[in-house]
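job 3f2a | input accepted
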Amino acid sequence: MDYIITTECYIRRGEDILFIHKGGKDMNSGKFLGIGGHFEKGESPVECIVREINEETGIKREELGNLRMRAIITFINPKYDDEYIYLFEAEYIGKDDPALRSCDEGELKWVNKKDVYSLPVWEGDKRMFDEMFKDDEFFTMKLVYDGDELKDVIVD
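job 3f2a | predicted structure (156 res):
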C-alpha cells in the first residue's frame, strides 16, 4: 500500500490540550501528537477516532463534548507512505484525569495551548495549529516533507 488513512484528535480541557509524547521506534518517536491512529476495516472516521481515543486514553465517548471534524490533512514524505489524516477536536468533560492513566504508545500530557509551539512536533503541525487556533472553520492542508524537512504547505 502506498498510503495510509488515520484519525487524530486534539482534546481540550479549557486552555490545555491532551497530547501523547510518543515512545517506540517509528517516525513519530519522541514527538508530541494528538490522540489517534489507523482505521480498522469498516470503520467510519468518527468510529475510528472514538475507538482510538478510548484505547489510548480510556476516555469514553460520553466524556467528549463537541467532537467534530476540523480538517483533512495530507502528509507526503518520500521516506514514508502518504498519509491522509481525518483531524478532529473535542472538549474533555469527564471527571478523571486521563493523563494519569498509562498508555502503551507513550506518555499522556496536558499542554497549555500557548506552549504547543515549543513542543517537539512535526514542523507542519505548527502550521496546522495556526489554522486550528485562528477560527472554527473546516480546512484541508497538504504538508510536503523531505525527511524531517518541511518543503511545502498548501491550505485550502
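job 3f2a | Helices lie at 45-57, 123-134.
job 3f2a | closed
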